[in-house]
Design goal:
The protein has 6 helices and 17 strands. Strand 16 and strand 17 form a beta hairpin. The protein starts with 7 loop residues before the first helix and ends in a 5-residue tail after the last helix. The strands form 5 sheets. It has a 5-stranded antiparallel beta sheet with strand order 2-11-10-6-7. The protein has a 4-stranded antiparallel beta sheet with strand order 1-3-5-8, with no helix packed on it. Strands 4-12-9 form a 3-stranded mixed beta sheet. The protein has 3 domains: 171 residues, no CATH class; 85 residues, no CATH class; 47 residues, no CATH class. The N terminus is likely disordered. It is α+β, with helices and mostly antiparallel strands. Helices cover 29% and strands 31% of the residues. Keywords: Membrane, Transmembrane, Transmembrane helix.
């Protein structure tokens, strides 16, 4: 009877459990702790009972070295070896205390998050406040179960510093920040202390703009530039006979020797109609492709300085332009069809 071999993933897990029992135990403990982390708006004060600490590989090597030194001291009854072993042991205990205390009573707050387009990297800013009279050294941030490449930061006494967490955002809408850790190995790197936290941070992800080239269809309510025949100061439209009440500066003085009555310069201003970007007028079937094309038209209209409005099923944004209007339109497209 042939026994089927287990899947490769299960087999690798079993091999990893046998070869790295401490790593397996650490993963189980982390999973148990992460299930109990709750999202809060902040700020979060790191209490003493929320700081976890374990020896690093250098710490384990340091401990083994002390044990070997202590065994040699007992074997040869060497008082100087005893003194050195106990001195190093005390140094390790003091180091453990300082590593743990470097995180206690630190305050975590959510910082600013800049909107991005789909497919870009979202950057979440975490502010670290230090109300103590002494600085906090080498604080690093990283997502749960991930290794952070960001450099550690120092927090001045009664001041604050910031760290940035990067997360890819493949889809439009609200991109929620997950559970992250604040850790330190100060002062000697013998111990690793960390805590878990989840602040209410989210990044608004706009749809990815379509490639330029497709003009807004006329059926979408776009208007061109047309002369309105209205008196203005934009473009020269010709000459007309002088009428009582016309300003002296509008008289065409060069034409006086050739005409019986004075002639007045006439101007007309160009009136630009607002551009309406209508959902139903986009010649595409896919929802995401329509949203991407509308984003492209919004960016093009902003670059040209044109006023534009947006019409979506259930949403009608009147014409306007500028940074605030652009954000309002892009936000409506990012959250389209989402609860």
């Amino acid at each position: 009877m042939t026994i089927p071999s287990p899947p490769r993933s299960e087999l690798s897990k079993k091999i990893g459990t046998i070869l790295h029992p401490l790593r397996w135990a650490q993963a189980r403990i982390d999973a148990w702790v992460l299930r109990r982390v709750r999202q809060v708006p902040g700020p979060i004060e790191i209490a003493r009972n929320r700081v976890y600490i374990v020896p690093t590989r250098f710490g384990w090597g340091f401990a083994v070295t002390i044990m070997v030194m202590l065994a040699g001291a007992m074997n040869y009854s060497n008082s100087m070896a005893f003194a050195l072993a106990f001195l190093l042991m005390g140094l390790g205990l003091v180091c453990m205390h300082h590593t743990h205390a470097n995180l206690v009573h630190v305050l975590l707050r959510a910082g600013r998050t800049r909107p991005i387009y789909a497919g870009e990297i979202a950057h979440f800013e975490v502010l670290i406040d230090n109300a103590a009279a002494h600085p906090r050294y080498s604080l690093a941030a990283g997502w749960a179960r991930e290794t952070s490449d960001e450099p550690a930061c120092d927090v001045p006494p009664q001041g604050f510093s910031s760290v940035t967490l990067a997360s890819p955002a493949p889809r439009r809408g609200w991109h929620q920040a997950g559970i992250f850790s604040i850790s330190t190995e100060f002062p000697l790197g013998l111990f690793h202390a960390w805590t878990w936290a989840q602040l209410d941070m989210r990044c608004l992800v706009f749809p990815l703009p379509a490639k330029p080239g497709m003009p807004p269809p006329l059926s979408a309510g776009s208007g061109g530039s047309a002369g309105a025949g209205r008196s203005g100061q934009d473009e020269f439209a010709g000459l007309r006979d002088y009428q009582r009440g016309d300003a002296l500066r509008s008289i065409h003085w060069k034409s006086l020797p050739k005409s019986i009555s004075p002639m007045v310069k006439q101007f007309s201003e160009t009136v630009e109609q607002a551009l309406w970007l209508n959902w139903d007028a986009v010649p595409l079937a896919d929802v995401e492709a329509r949203l991407s094309q509308l984003v492209r038209w919004i960016l093009d209209a902003e670059a040209e300085g044109r006023a534009y409005g947006l019409r979506l099923p259930g949403t009608n944004i009147p014409p306007g332009h500028g940074e605030t209007h652009r954000f309002e339109c892009l936000k409506a497209l990012a959250l389209f069809g989402q609860p």
